[in-house]
Amino acid sequence: xxxxxxxxxxxxxxxxxxxxxxxxxxxxxxxxxxxxxxxxxxxxxxxxxxxxxxxxxxxxxxxxxxxxxxxxxxxxxxxxxxxxxxxxxxxxxxxxxxxxxxxxxxxxxxxxxxxxxxxxxxxxxxxxxxxxxxxxxxxxxxxxxxxxxxxxxxxxxxxxxxxxxxxxxxxxxxxxxxxxxxxxxxxxxxxxxxxxxxxxxxxxxxxxxxxxxxxxxxxxxxxxxxxxxxxxxxxxxxxxxxxxxxxxxxxxxxxxxxxxxxxxxxxxxxxxxxxxxxxxxxxxxxxxxxxxxxxxxxxxxxxxxxxxxxxxxxxxxxxxxxxxxxxxxxxxxxxxxxxxxxxxxxxxxxxxxxxxxxxxxxxxxxxxxxxxxxxxxxxxxxxxxxxxxxxxxxxxxxxxxxxxxxxxxxxxxxxxx
Length: 417
Ligand code: EPU
What we know:
alpha+beta; 23 strands; 4-stranded mixed β-sheet; binds uridine-diphosphate-2(N-acetylglucosaminyl) butyric acid
């Protein structure tokens, strides 16, 4: 089994370039099936989820060419085929084919999506939304068969501003007659990124990035071109690392409005950083203060940085508390952090106590999920001795060229097959 091996306590300096956002790219690729012929997506990260999405696109008879971080998709021979379970379970984002293929063909058949095991993660809000637009949804065991003679735009209120449901309904609404209005929509940057792609291919979308999004259906779209936004979670992860072991470490490719909640929290913790243009420079903070963190939807503190910041708070002088409001099973990383000599206690299902400061010690650990894996590689980089991270494939699902990027700035980190 492959593992990442880290010899910790090396100072990191130089520059880390941020890749395109996983959670945008994984929606933009299925969205490309809406185009009649060609579309191009630039700045696509090299991660496992993208490899599997391309396999699904090829299964649907699309031609996909990859060159220098750009992918060009020819969907002129797209065929509506059921998506096999062995492909759809590889990642969460396979559910975006539901919205896209429903818009395009009025029918889609696939199984429940996969993704990190961090909670139940139902897709009831997506399904309710498709039904509001006129689709009939049949669920046989694990398989979803969604059909619509025609989709008709209407006003849909989300019970919760789900990122996935907002994007899926934007995709489905692009194939509906008339206008769809999504109320209580998610406001994450990924929504804006997908809206910009839809607008570029010819769908009229208004209000993305606010709580109300309007989409005028238009099936006659083509030649979509889009740049994937920089990955705000990858960016936040490396900023957190910089606060622990950086020496004028430069993180290049940031959009500071996308990481506002993290930057505020770091200021509260006592971390200094400097932003010039799209580059943030950060050095090790020698006086880390304990804080309370509550995860929220954008623009609140992102759940995807909760596990990485937990590792930072093991170094704070005092006790910190984390409240995880999005997922009911996102503290699994703390078991291994404690084995590395941290003191964390799960107080309730969604509340974590972290007592610091603790000198972390390298040992063998297991990455249970993507961001939990990130919290462990940060821990390995500050720990004494050697840390071996097993099941490290989950980390490669979200961090493009992680070993190369960290080696370039001075880390002792290896990927061993
Ligand atoms: N939810 C429902 N019903 C639904 C949809 C969501 O109850 O129909 C609940 C979920 O169970 C969860 C909460 O609502 O408790 C948030 O879910 P949301 O739909 O917003 O998240 P998602 O689309 O499943 C995306 C990212 C996640 C990220 C969340 C929140 C992708 C592929 N995944 O998930 O990313 O945590 O938004 O920002 O875009 C990661 O990158 O590590 C990751 C897990």
